[in-house]
Amino acid sequence: MLEVKNLTFKVDENGVERSIVKDISFQVEDGEMLVITGPNGGGKSSLAKVLMGIEDADEGRIVLDGEDITDYDISHRADAGIGFAFQQPPRFKGMTVDKLLSLAAGRPLTEPECCKMLSGVGLCAREYIKREVDATLSGGEMKRLEIATVLAKPHKLCIFDEPEAGIDLWSFSMLVQQFERIHKKKEESLILISHQERIIQMADRIMVIEDGKIGAIGTRDEILPNLLSEGQCACMDRQQEGGN
Ligand SMILES: Nc1ncnc2c1ncn2[C@@H]1O[C@H](COP(=O)(O)OP(=O)(O)OP(=O)(O)O)[C@@H](O)[C@H]1O
């Protein structure tokens, strides 16, 4: 179980201190899927980065399965069992796709294993396996590869920041199926940051982050009707057509 207690994250904006995440407390149970949504700039990605150790909390504690990981750096948190997929994945010039997947898995992977992982996120494996993870990969290809690296080994908790961003409808459906499969097994907790109705609908619980604070948190049945009536989630089909 993840326990987040009174988490605050501040940035220095031209010499002025600004709280981006403000005294946030919540829990994610084992095997639970929590979807975090809310308006742009509300603090969702910042919260995720603080959870992964990419940014340091100014106040509060983060406890994973009873272990206080607040002072752990990013690699120590990864060892503790947290996986993270960035909203905008980094590129690694000189690294091939199969090597990156093996690194993520923590062991050398065979070609069929790499192929299976890539197929799971809608990437045609033969075409990609020896490609370099550099600027020649499109944004959508990078995004799917990044998600495959997180899925390459078991974690206690996986955090995906807007997994739908820049992904075509077909690959999006495969991704949703992957999340459903992981969720069904109940072996890993999932935090998905998303604006997508189809992802939000999978959630056990939904947390709305607004202005750095929790605007609402509750079960899907408690929160989703309000989000839909306020038009706060996006439909993938409409988004593909250029709307929101
Ligand atoms: N390092 C930083 N320095 C200054 N401001 C920052 C920093 N990181 C984030 N912010 C600001 O904090 C606010 C929250 O950003 P964040 O990316 O967490 O929002 P978000 O809810 O994930 O937004 P979106 O839905 O658009 O992805 C924004 O106003 C952003 O500009």
Automatic annotation (TrEMBL):
Keywords noted in UniProt? ATP-binding, Nucleotide-binding, Transport
* Pfam families reported for this sequence: ABC_tran
Q: Which domain of life is it from?
A: Bacteria
| Molecular function as annotated in GO | ATP binding; ATP hydrolysis activity
Q: Which GO terms describe its cellular component?
A: plasma membrane
Q: Which residues form the ABC transporter domain?
A: 2-236
Return the Gene3D superfamilies for the record: P-loop containing nucleotide triphosphate hydrolases
Q: Which PANTHER family match?
A: CONSERVED COMPONENT OF ABC TRANSPORTER FOR NATURAL AMINO ACIDS-RELATED, LIPOPOLYSACCHARIDE EXPORT SYSTEM ATP-BINDING PROTEIN LPTB
Under which name does UniProt file this protein?
ATP-binding cassette domain-containing protein
* Organism classification: Bacteria, Bacillati, Bacillota, Clostridia, Lachnospirales
